[in-house]
Specification:
α1 (17-24) runs antiparallel to α2 (28-35). The chain has an 8-stranded mixed β-sheet with strand order 1-2-3-4-5-6-8-7, with helices on one face. The protein is built from 7 helices and 8 strands, in the order ββαααααβββαβαββ. By secondary structure, the protein is α+β, with helices and mostly antiparallel strands. It has a single domain (5-179), classed as 3-Layer(aba) Sandwich (Aminopeptidase), CATH 3.40.630.30. A hairpin with an 8-residue loop joins β4 and β5.
Length: 180
């Protein structure tokens, strides 16, 4: 799962199996207690779960260290003026990298907190962490060409285009990479 990461504005808390279970089962109060932070109003929801967790709950339970490798909650750091800590998104990897040493990252920020740089700040910290892990040689990210906000995050963290990939539902996705 990895250590707690911090940035100037954020805490990037490792995603635990208990947190995933609470979110996937729609147990909002339990998830907030585990995270010690408020969830966005729209969370947990079916759309979030489908985007953030590519594996079934049973598969995550069977191998949480593999499936939740590097996954983190994006929590706004409390500065004493804001009230309770709150979760604004997540950065997830698609499991522990395989023998090729390539980790794939995805990220999302709840609607009311978009456009404030949280995705860039959090994703940069998580990608930097991943590139220091043994055996990791690169981190990739994919997005649709029309998804301007996602493209800005990818460009701001220094990823370079390396090709395309077809997706069953989304069509052609652009693939970006940052190497060690």
């Amino acid at each position: 799962m990895g250590p707690l990461l911090t940035t100037p504005r954020l805490e990037l808390a490792p995603m635990s199996l208990a947190m995933v279970e609470a979110v996937m089962l729609g147990k909002r109060e339990t998830a907030e207690a585990i995270a010690e932070a408020k969830l966005p109003d729209a969370w947990p929801g079916a759309a979030l779960i489908e985007r953030a967790f590519s594996a079934s709950l049973d598969r995550i339970r069977a191998a949480p260290e593999e499936r939740l490798w590097g996954d983190r909650l994006i929590v706004i750091r409390s500065d004493g003026n804001r009230g309770p800590r709150c979760i604004v998104g997540s950065v997830v990897f698609h499991g522990r990298p395989g023998p090729d040493g390539v980790a794939e990252v995805a990220y999302g920020v709840e609607e009311a907190s978009q456009g404030l740089g949280y995705a860039t700040e959090a994703t940069r910290a998580c990608v930097d962490w991943a590139l220091t892990q043994p055996g990791v040689v690169a981190v990739t990210a994919t997005t649709a060409a029309w998804h301007r906000a996602s493209l800005r995050v990818i460009q701001k963290i220094g990823m370079s285009p390396i090709g395309t990939r077809d997706h069953d539902l989304l069509g052609e996705l652009l693939v970006f990479e940052l190497r060690r």
